[in-house]
Model the fold of this input.
Amino acid sequence: MGQPQGRSRQHKNKLKQKKSFRSKRRKKDTDQIRADMLDPVCVQKITQMEPDGDLPGSGKFFCIACNRHMIDAHALKEHFRSKIHKRRIKKLQEEPYSHKEAEQAGGMGQFTPKDNVVAKTVLDNVVAEISGSSQAEMVTA
Done:
């Protein structure tokens, strides 16, 4: 009778389409976020951003570690207690691998596993400030 009706593969070999799907909602990488967290000037610039009506919560409530905007202080406080945020903090505290370490692990030198060193960030102070201001806002509301 004829060939069975299979699905049409419309986007199979369209490279431009594949790349656009892959990079549609591209977020910052963990090494970029870690560099922002360790730089006090960048943290101050992010926390003292001017209100932007296009962002959730007018851009006032921002988690630097997860690179996400929240709608209000309560949502931000709940986010700080979430498993997703805690995993991201744990991942950001690890020292990122360098090219030298990758080459050593690949057999081009002596490889010694590194110890996990907790990075001191400015984020702890920011979280304390937000928690304090959100409690004050909740009391006045």
About this structure: The beta strands are 61-63, 68-70. The first strand starts at residue 61 and ends at 63. Helices lie at 15-22, 30-38, 40-47, 73-80, 83-93, 99-105, 123-140.
